[in-house]
């Protein structure tokens, strides 16, 4: 008669996957009666998708650079052609990317769905949290510029803020240097941000080893 017990438990942790009925020292074990079907050191791989309001991690650095180039073009057009109505659109784009990655951002969707495939989809993965922090700085710049112009009529100072954004986004687009990411890393080293915020930031090359250790690779 099938049983469960210590003999069955010993057999259970030595076979993967277990059979429905197996003999262990003359005792027939029905594994359907056991509380666990697989040993704890071999957790099943989770297939759950990221929440809608989340940021990609890791993120393709080339996508970030193309998005930054789009930001530069929009900011330059705002100043050169004196079109301040573009500023709230830019602010929305940054807020959307911080909140949900590319899902709600027309610029990011254009880059990921059209531009990247058209140019061969170059890929270089980097940690996502620093990029999200950099995008949050973009929120601060564009919202400030929008409020200065539409709230106080200070178009000159608003364009000055955009000029600073052009400089930072231009570094990302042309040189691949993310100023916001640099500040993020400095804050992690100083202990302002806990390591749990970005486990892969210290050495992104160890990401695969960490995922394997956690059973999620």
Q: Could you tell me how far the N terminus lies from the C terminus, measured between alpha carbons in angstroms? A: 40 Å
**Strand content bin:** 5-15%
| Tally of separate helices | 8
- The H/E string reads HEEEHHHEHHHH
Share of helical residues? 40-55%
| SS-derived structural category | mainly alpha
Largest sheet: 2 strands, antiparallel
Mean pLDDT, nearest integer?
81
**What's the arrangement of strands in the largest beta sheet?**
1-2
Which parts are unreliable, with pLDDT below 50 for 5 consecutive residues or more?
2-7, 9-24, 30-47
State the shape.
Answer: globular
The strand count comes to 4
Tally of individual domains: 2
Radius of gyration, whole Å: 26 Å
Word description of this protein:
With 217 residues, the chain is mostly helical. The protein has 2 domains: 1-42, no CATH class; 59-213, no CATH class. Helices cover 55% and strands 6% of the residues. The strands form 2 sheets. The chain has a two-stranded antiparallel ribbon. The longest helix has 25 residues, at 128-152. The two termini are 40 Å apart.
Summarize, please.
The protein is mainly alpha-helical.
What are the main properties of this structure?
217 residues; mainly alpha; two-stranded antiparallel ribbon; two-stranded antiparallel sheet; 8 helices
Compile the SSE list and pairings.
Blueprint: H1 6-12, E1 21-24, E2 27-30, E3 59-60, H2 61-80, H3 86-100, H4 106-118, E4 125-126, H5 128-152, H6 155-175, H7 179-189, H8 207-213
Antiparallel strand pairs: 1-2, 3-4
Helix pairs in contact: 2-4, 2-6, 3-5, 5-6, 5-7
